[in-house]
Write a structure and sequence with these properties.
mainly alpha; 9 helices
Length: 204
């Protein structure tokens, strides 16, 4: 039991260190030796956990997408959740993950994606497509209910919201003017106005 726990701890350390180094030095410029050095391992030890540098990158991106998608997956088909509340839940979950404990990685999603093999890239893109499908379903329900503007392009709206949130890890600082909760509120209101649902604020 203790051995399994120690193994898991070592694996988490490798992922955390790799994520930071990929951002600071660049994926191509980061070697397994660099990762091992910061972790306090010999390079050969990392191969007990990962087959190579790409498998580390894949695990980082895969975990991130799972954490983004799984908590909101039910919103795709759950019509009992008001579209405005569903939009907020989607944004809140994404922002908290982006600016939370993992924010120090600042791993740019699309940059990392380009370094994956076609097979691994497809797995990540499939999850990204799931995220987009959830957002599109929420927007369409809002349009059907007359809350969001009828002429809003569902996909472009969701792509825009996701992009704004993803880029926030670049400029956000925990020492900055706004807290994570305040940023969530701003992004939610910004998105809601963009969808033509600004009138909803008078009801909140």
């Amino acid at each position: 039991m203790a051995e399994r726990k120690n193994r898991a701890t070592q694996q988490e350390l490798i992922l955390a260190v790799s994520s930071r180094l990929f951002w600071e030095k660049g994926y191509a410029e980061t070697s397994m030796k660099d990762i091992a050095g910061v972790c306090g391992f010999r390079p050969a030890n990392i191969y007990n956990f990962f087959t190579g540098k790409e498998s580390i990158l894949f695990e980082i991106l895969y975990r991130e997408m799972v954490d983004i998608v799984v908590p909101i997956a039910h919103l795709k088909d759950d019509e009992s959740v008001n579209p405005v509340e569903a939009l907020r839940l989607m944004i809140e979950n994404h922002v908290k993950l982006t600016l939370g404990e993992k924010r120090s990685s600042k791993l740019l999603f699309d940059v990392g994606l380009n370094n994956l093999s076609p097979a691994n890239r497809k797995k990540i893109i499939r999850l990204r497509d799931d995220y987009d499908a959830i957002g599109v379903a929420i927007v369409r329900r809002g349009k059907k209910a007359g809350i969001f503007a009828k002429d809003v392009d569902d996909k472009i709206a969701v792509f825009s919201i996701g992009s704004i949130i993803a880029r926030s890890r670049i400029w956000y600082s925990p020492k900055g003017k706004y807290s994570v909760d305040e940023i969530i509120e701003f992004m939610f209101r910004f998105a809601l106005r963009g969808l033509g649902g600004g009138a909803v604020f008078g009801k909140r």
